[in-house]
Amino acid sequence: LLLPALWWPKVENCEQRNSVAFETYLSLSYLACLHGKRHLSSTTTVVTNLRLGSTHASMRFRIRYFTLLLVNIVGLFILIYLVNRKCIRLFKVDIPQVLLPRPQSGNDLNNSLKRKFSWDTVSIEVQEQLRLLSAIDWHRVKPTADCNHRFGYPPTSDEINLMETGPGAAWQRFLSSINSCEVYKSEEILQDVLQLMSKEPVLETAIMKGGTQVKLLITFKNGRQAVFKPMRFDRNHEADPNHFYFSDFERHNAEIAAFHLDKILGYNRAIPTVGRVFNMTSELKEFADQQLYSTFFISPVGNVCFVGVCKYYCMTGMAICGNPDMIEGSLQMFIDTPYTPFDRIISPYRR
């Protein structure tokens, strides 16, 4: 049985070694059959050792191959990194930063002007104005509105006609009179707008996004819009002193009172607000969009109610109900942004 091991050939690769091992296994199997079954176990042990040796050699070859491949990849990345750094150093161009000097005093300004033209040719008045301008720290100057010389924003859309006539003429005249210091100035135009808001027919109602309270965006037939805040508390209702100011419902009449107080003090900066009673069935529900319409229901006592969509106070237990379908609230003008430019300023009373 040991004779085949004497002529075991020297192989060059793992495939040849596996082939030789298989042929040796066949030879040993044949000899085992000749000498009896008692020799089969020892024969199998020899062949198994041969096959295991071949497998171990194959695994060693694979480990050496992948190790060499990994070393080559790491070396390639290091070479690319070094070449890139070398190229950056070779082709780097330093761009000089030019700093323009800002005149700090009248003497510096005089010297800079003398290099351009003769200072003697400039009049004394111009020289004095230039000296005053040079003393201003322009980096700290912020534009402020001059309320003694009010600037009215011109219309920013070609669709606006200042000579507009018809139902929306008063609204348009009001928007055109807004300036940098006042929302309104003419008492006549203001009264026309308040009268228009109190009786203009409704075209569409929708839920106004944002805020913690229920608000509706009312679109009138003249194309203008207003924000409707329904009544939550009766005028004689006293708030619990233990509650925070944001824990209760907002008062609709507080919006109206704030507008009139601002007007009495002469600021004229509050958005025009008027009280109005709506029919919840024929004015709000009939012209409501799908989102608002789906929140209407009839209370157990037969009143028309709706819930709305908001952050905190929009649930069935806090529904807004009519009496039986009439609801009072405040109606505040909605100023169209395309017509009047403005800045968004966060309220200091915001939570």
Strand order of the largest sheet: 1-2-3-8-4
Q: Whole-number average pLDDT?
A: 73
Helix and strand run: HHHHHHHEEEHEHHEEEE
Beta-strand share of residues: 5-15%
Could you describe the largest sheet, including whether it forms a barrel?
A: 5 strands, antiparallel
* Number of H/I helices: 10
Instruction: Report the span from N to C terminus.
Output: 95 Å
Radius of gyration: 45 Å
Shape: flat
Parts with pLDDT < 50 across at least 5 consecutive residues: 1-18, 30-44, 149-163
The quaternary organization reads as single chain
The secondary-structure class comes to alpha+beta
Helix share, percent: 40-55%
Q: Give the tally of β-strands.
A: 8
Main location: membrane
Cofactor: Mn(2+)
Pfam family, one: FAM198
Binding site for Mn(2+): 250
Q: Quick recap of the structure?
A:
The protein has helices spanning 3-6, 14-35, 40-91, 106-114, 124-134, 169-176, 187-199, 252-264, 280-285, 290-293, and strands at 202-207, 216-220, 225-230, 273-279, 296-298, 304-306, 320-321, 326-334. It is α+β, with helices and mostly antiparallel strands and 351 residues long.
